Amino acid sequence: MNVRVLTDVLAIDREFTYTVPEGWADDPRFGVGAMVRVVLHGRRVGGWITEVGVEAPEEVELTPLAKLSSLGPGRELMDLSEWAAWRWAGRRAHFLRTASPPRVVAGLPRPQRSRMVPSGDYADLFEGEGRTLRQGPSDDPLPIALAAASRGQALILVPDHGRADDLARRLGREGAWAVRYPDGWAAAAAGATVVGTLSAAWAPAPDLTAVLVIDEHDESYRSESAPTWSGRDVAVERARRAGVPCVLLSSVPSLEALRSRRVMRPSRGAERDSWPQVEVVDRRSEDPGRAGLYSPELVRALRDGGRVACVLNRRGRALLLACHLCGELAVCTECGASMRQTEDKQLRCRAGDHVRPMVCAECGSTKMRNLRAGVKRVREEIEALIRTPVAEATGSGYVGSPTARVVVGTEAVLHLGRPFDVVAFLEFDQELLAPRFRAREQALALIARAARITGSRESGGKIVLQTRLPDDSVVTAALRADPALLARAERDRRQELGLPPYGAIAVVSGPVAEEYMERFGTPLGIQVAPDPSGQFFLRAPDYDTLCDALASVERPSGRLRIDVDPIRAI
Fold it and tell me: 381 with 388: CB under 8 angstroms?
């Protein structure tokens, strides 16, 4: 007997034929998707069986499989990996790694009988093909997860590990046989309901009956490394192929979730009550050059004694400095770039390594004013303002007491897993004006995440938005607890511009990007625009057109990144 094997070597995206040693075909691990070891070019590498019972190529002496390692993804996920490789211009092995067990699995556990799981008021959600459900940010998704699990084997995605752990435990207490992915790979392959984050989109689910994606809008469902695949979209495709309902749950549904799907929403009163109070601090009347970050409303919130999280997506001490006397900006005398303050009170160029004393080049003053303070500087200033230790949270880590009443940080502060009474966005305009086409959608998603950790207005939750754009559709949507206000505005804008989901885009970058694009050429219906950084922006009317074109081009050797539907694209 012969088999085809896809090797776990990303640079070699092709299959090879091997013979099966005698007796292996009777092993329960053997079959399509099984993980094996093979000899390739003189060395042993891993791989997956893609086809069983193939004919041997003529005049070729076949090598036998070296080892039958473990149960693997199975035929459904093998087929799905081909679709994903086309959809995100990647290699099948990337996806099969995620779909494979983290440890060797020789056999599956005995299926457990779930105790009766009440479906409650949400059973009708999972009738038909499924739909998008808009739910308030402080509402509990457990009843909806129970409705999914009550149907049989459900696949439930949650954007972060802490909430996934909690949901799996709660489902278990309610009587469901639920496991966390990837540790529960074997149980999932035996029919257990799967709860997990991004990678769980590739969990084995032989008896799949329902799919639920909680907070479908969350960027955590996107892989940061290429291929930049979407866990939400993989889950939706799995449900479509299996013919089972898929429910997308969100407090601020993305346009992708709203398009071509039936949308259900709570009553206006119930939805409004689920959001915290939103206070908008209008700063239009203040002098941009002299106004600081600390409005009277913010100072009052800081001094009221509650737990406060201050969000500022600028790390460091100061990002823009000006002379306190003459107002001259602190710029590099070598290249003209802005300069930052170092820990030892020096000025360092942001573009190069030029360092000079903290002295105004125009008037000689040694006093500088922060026009755009970073997180570190803001923490120091708030500590002086309220005379209380303040903690700092960024993507690099946490500094300060774990129980600090006030925490200043980037949006990482919203991922601490701690409740706060108030979340204050110190300069919300930087989110609204970010040079990304999804900026407003992402800004409202930040508010929704903040709303989850503050709780509803009835529980005293509050969000403070400091802005010079109080009439922006994002601010209005948050103030009225009505995300549809933003969705309508974004839909019209993106339809007019042909941006996702009403068009398709990709970014090609890397050392061999230019060579790849020479091979790519100018296919019909695709616009190609290079930029000075060496990246290439591709636009097409739809993903079929774009992905077919990308798949038709042979990749040159060397590092290449193809980001299909980039979430941070300008």
Answer: no
